[in-house]
Specification:
Helix content is 31%, strand content 35%. By secondary structure, the protein is an alpha+beta fold. It has a single domain, classed as PH-domain like (Roll), CATH 2.30.29. Strands 2-3-4-5 form a four-stranded antiparallel β-sheet. A three-stranded antiparallel β-sheet has the order 6-7-8, covered by helices on one side. A two-stranded antiparallel sheet has the order 1-9. It starts with a strand and ends with a strand.
């Protein structure tokens, strides 16, 4: 896949936040069992892991910040997203969480995984898909499939 500029132009819109927050501490039944079986020690690990990750999804970009002491920030512009995968296993549906995978054309971040989201993942997917199309139109970018 490659991107080619298009001749259409669109009016600029403001960047809106679609989702911002940390993943759920206990995002699956497996995590819940780990916390129970270790008498809460597993929960401490899960808590530190969740608080060490922050997701921000806007109409223009997806930002993932990881780490408690050493921080790593990854950012992907939404017009570079070429495919979406919504993953909601039974254990996560029971706990009200889900995962969203973004397959991108970014050289350094080909796959972005937003795991354990405490939100309606399908609605977030729909909003992000619409924002991707709008940002491509705004930038005058078209995806061309070379396969």
């Amino acid at each position: 896949m490659s991107m080619t500029p298009s001749t259409s132009t669109s009016t600029s819109t403001e960047e809106r936040t679609l989702f911002a927050g940390h993943p759920a501490v206990v995002d699956s039944v497996g995590g819940l069992l780990l916390a129970i079986l270790t008498l809460g020690l597993g929960w401490l690990y899960l808590y530190a892991r969740a608080k060490g990750t922050h997701f921000k999804v806007t109409t223009r970009r997806v930002i993932v910040e990881r780490g408690l002491l050493n921080k790593r920030l990854e950012q992907v512009d939404v017009y570079r997203i070429k495919d979406f995968v919504v993953d909601r296993p039974l254990g996560q549906r029971l706990l009200g969480t889900g995962n969203l995978q973004l397959l991108t054309m970014d050289a350094t971040t080909a796959r972005v995984e937003l795991h354990g989201l405490r939100a309606d993942v399908v609605a977030l997917y729909e909003q992000l898909r619409a924002a991707t199309e709008a940002d491509r139109l705004r930038r005058g970018v078209r995806l061309v499939d070379n396969e």
